[in-house]
Amino acid sequence: MKEADRPQIKDLLVSKEFGKDFLLKGWVRTRRGNKQIAFVALNDGSTINNIQVVIDVPGFDEAMIEKITTGACIAVSGTLVESMGKGQSVEIQAKEIEIYGPADPATYPLQKKGHSMEFLREIAHLRPRTNTFGAILRIRHHLAYAIHKYFNDNGFFWMHTPIITGSDAEGAGEMFRVSTLDPVNPPLTDDKEIDFSKDFFGKETNLTVSGQLEGELGALALSKIYTFGPTFRAENSNTPRHLAEFWMVEPEMAFCEIDDNMDLAEDFLKYLIGYVLEICRDDLDFLQKMYDEELTGRLNFVLENEFERIVYTEAIEILESSGQKWEFPVSWGKDLQAEHERYLVEKHYKKPVIITDYPRDIKAFYMKQNDDGKTVRGMDVLFPRIGEIIGGSQREEVYEKLEQRIDEMDIPKKDFWWYLETRKFGTAPHAGFGLGFERLVLFITGMSNIRDVIPFPRTPNNAEF
Ligand code: 4AD
Ligand code: MG
Questions:
Q1: Which of 167, 175, 210 has most ligand 1 atoms within 8 Å of CB, for mutation?
Q2: pLDDT, tens only, 417-435
Q3: How far is the CA of 246 from the centre of ligand 2 (A)?
Q4: Are the C-beta atoms of 299 and 277 separated by less than 8 Å?
Q5: Pocket of ligand 1, beta carbon within 6 A
Q6: Model confidence at 456, in pLDDT bands (50, 70, 90)?
Q7: Residue 142 and residue 272: Cα distance in Å, rounded?
Q8: What angle (nearest 5°) sits at the alpha carbon of residue 206, between those of residues 200 and 208?
């Protein structure tokens, strides 16, 4: 049989081809039984569910059977039969078994169930073998697929923006430098500064914090684009919601203003949640049962309710009159902290909230300025348990206003000449946003730490795997 013809366990579990022989390969979850008969729960990662392999022990080499322990990798050929036992409808009556790789029960770290999430992070090379991470990785995949499908179906083009950039899109100075200079003896300028003109790209470069600026160049040509790629932030935030390397989805649309931008964000998030509720039922049910009773209830709630839309000033008024004690005091002009965002979403409105029209001094230089001279057309979408899941804005499309803002904020204009030129030639109203992919996976899986929804998290002091 060709490898390509070997069925996935997810398909075999619903097959009705009883009496037919199949070849299966996968990892042993458990083996139980006695000297006469053994039952092996086998999983190939295609589904959370295992297939039961029934072995008539006397027909096999006993030493080989002993090697079929939790974590071992085996190939089994056998006949598909209707199951008499409880909990499954089909099983495989084994004819031949080959052991690809044993897993010594004395040392295999996943021998027992019920490890803490913290422990599993220390064995990130093995945790995909657990039910929990299998479910999360499958949901992550289906979400990524749904993102591409949504945009493709709605006339957006996927644009590949660079990972190495020469500008700081968010202006927050939280970048990882990319350099091939000798760190011990870098070339120096006359002023004893590092001479980046001698570096690989002939200038200072960093890993991108956002594909937005390049995305805007695409939107001002193809009308609707999106980026979907890794982004990097060297912010030292050791929180359950921050990664130093995370994936961001950034649609950008010409001829689009802040209200259209909010409509898109809401429709997009609801589509993705609906997609996962339909396609990833088994995995969601598992996560709900094991971790979070309210998981699918919460997802359905977001799906069925309109997001609340308020302006920043209103949010501040609500927070100020809430009677709550805050760790970070609230006042007009200050950025909202996670505690404030979660209060608005979880206590006050009890549903997702979109806040717009933030003070311009706490937002990036590219946001469209309102006529009041104080606020900009930024928008944040806030979710229960997560806080900010999307950040976006309408962009300043007027050359002079954008240039003035760059000057006011002391941003090196020489790095942005190309960005400014789009406002000189054929500028157009446009808007977009960035969805933190892991924050979405976090919300949808009900996990409580962002380190558990990306295979190999990058956080301060952690890049082992
Ligand atoms: O709000 P942010 O910084 O917005 C931008 O980068 C814009 N350029 C997006 C745009 O308008 N095209 O980031 C967008 C989202 C946040 O709302 C959050 O979900 C996520 O990215 N995010 C992070 N996720 C994980 N770890 C971090 N350190 C994150 N920083 C931002
Ligand atoms: Mg933000």
A1: 210
A2: 999 999 999 999 999 999 9
A3: 14
A4: yes
A5: 169-170, 210, 212, 233, 235, 242-243, 246, 248, 250, 388-393, 432-434, 436, 438-439
A6: very high
A7: 9
A8: 135
Strands 21-33 and 157-158, by their bridges, are unpaired
Average pLDDT over residues 364-393: 97
* CATH code for residues 128-174+209-452: 3.30.930.10
Protein residues within 5 Å, CB atom, of ion ligand 2 = 391
Q: What is the mean pLDDT of residues 321-330?
A: 96
Q: In the predicted model, what is the mean pLDDT of residues 186-206?
A: 96
Ligand 1 centroid to residue 388 C-alpha, Å: 8
**Under CATH, domain 3-101 is a member of which superfamily?**
Nucleic acid-binding proteins (2.40.50.140)
Tell how far the Cα of 208 is from the centroid of ligand 1, in angstroms. 12
In one letter, which amino acid is 411?
I
In the chain, what are the domain boundaries? Answer: 3-101, 128-174+209-452
84: pLDDT strictly greater than 90: no
What is the residue with the minimal CA distance to atom 25 of ligand 1? 242
What is the average per-residue pLDDT within 88-94?
93
Residue 389 exposure: Cα atoms within 13 Å on the Cβ side: 25
Q: Which atom of ligand 1 is nearest to the CA of 380?
A: 17
